[in-house]
């Protein structure tokens, strides 16, 4: 018999592609032998790396005394400017070891409980560390103390504080009013009040609050994954055991941990049909950090779809139902926020955090990087007057584009799914045994929230490493149809972000502008091309909820298909 025009290698590639698409669990079983055969070995390797990282932080982390100069890794034990270059090197290598252990366990055939235990073992030593990769924990304590002494953190700054606590605060926050919400300030004030004036007690209590947020995330991620048709163990590996969670949510103790926990907890409650409680939880999260309000319009869509299903009707959403659900969501969340502002007597300044992060000009924010590029052009042309408005204008344009993108992403979630592609098939996730799968529209709505948060992170005036953790868990639980394609890129970005700052908190974005700004320009070109192609497929009837957001992509020409089959 004559051999097929496609050779053995091509047929093998096709067979592997079908296996990846149709049976991802079997692919996982064929993955890393080391990670599968010896998961305990890599678990304990990660524990050892975490212990060494926590120990090294006492000489390389954000200590109470500010270093006079940037602490770069080296071999010297100590330096006159403060900090240990040798321990900075040890911290860097320990972080690398933890990341390697995490990657080696990517394909481990273990349970959700095993991953939750592993994350607890990896992150527990970091509770005893000096804050790593950021000094924000000191500013949290100082702002809480400021309010406990009778000064509103929205009207006064840490520099006015009559306490040694201000000496540990990063210069950026000394003269900057707080951008955080009243719930967070209430917690910080309570911590400062019970600390007895001991800074380390306040830091520990604030860190334990962040740990509570991580615990909620560790519960919510597998719960949401099961309900949305994603493998809960793989989602837990990606979004809970990720080293980024340990170093920024546990050691750095960023209040973003509570905000993300509120968003995920609210989604988990919404998928149980408890929408009022979900709206309350998300509103409380927004009163920690205002970013959580992005979740409210998507919560309203979930509510509208729930009402539609319970009424026995099927088909696309209608505007009256969406408006009713939106009004209820706004009423519940608005009442909680209004009560928070009135009861704490702090008002509503937290709803407009202003330009607080804007003091930080780094190319890691796309709009800021483009503004820096305009500054450079102005310098070459002798137009120094461009320096001040360039970044501000770029950031303003970025916020306008962000608002437009959020509207389009929300509309895409409200409308029916896009039609099948030219092959006539639509990708579908494989639901494992025992998983309670939500409807495709529900999963698509949660996934749209993830894309919306990604747009917020990408177009915000500043990008800080822990901002990526706003996005990672939401996408990790909702990308079931494209999990095999999306998981690795998400994990690679998390790995890169782990090394964007030095252990003491200095951002490498400040010293890599010459490399980063050209990357921003390339990213701008790519995004403009994608926007052009997507814009051509936008349905002109944007406000008709019965029509998909994007029209069907044109089918390939017969000649193109023939060439592809050769």
Provide the succession of SSEs.
HHHHHHHHHHHHHHHHHHHHHHH
The helix count comes to 23
Strand proportion: under 5%
> Number of DSSP strands?
0
Q: Show unreliable segments.
A: 1-5, 27-37, 423-437, 559-566
Helix proportion:
55-70%
Determine the mean pLDDT.
85
Q: How far is the first residue's CA from the last residue's CA?
A: 19 Å
Shape: globular
* Biggest beta-sheet profile: none
* Alpha-beta content class: mainly alpha
Rg value? 25 Å
Would you mind describing this structure in some detail?
The chain has 566 residues and is mainly alpha-helical. The protein contains 23 helices and no strands. The protein has helices at 8-22, 24-29, 33-37, 39-60, 85-104, 112-123, 136-148, 171-174, 182-194, 199-228, 232-239, 243-251, 256-270, 275-286, 295-310, 319-343, 366-380, 387-414, 440-459, 468-478, 483-498, 513-537, 558-565. Helix 10 packs antiparallel against helix 11 and helix 10 (199-228) packs antiparallel against helix 12.
Write the layout of secondary structure elements.
Blueprint: H1 8-22, H2 24-29, H3 33-37, H4 39-60, H5 85-104, H6 112-123, H7 136-148, H8 171-174, H9 182-194, H10 199-228, H11 232-239, H12 243-251, H13 256-270, H14 275-286, H15 295-310, H16 319-343, H17 366-380, H18 387-414, H19 440-459, H20 468-478, H21 483-498, H22 513-537, H23 558-565
Helix pairs in contact: 4-5, 4-6, 6-11, 7-9, 7-10, 9-10, 10-11, 10-12, 10-13, 10-20, 11-20, 13-14, 13-15, 13-20, 14-15, 14-16, 15-16, 15-19, 17-18, 17-22, 18-19, 19-20
Gist of the model:
With 566 residues, this protein is an all-alpha fold. It has helices spanning 8-22, 24-29, 33-37, 39-60, 85-104, 112-123, 136-148, 171-174, 182-194, 199-228, 232-239, 243-251, 256-270, 275-286, 295-310, 319-343, 366-380, 387-414, 440-459, 468-478, 483-498, 513-537, 558-565.
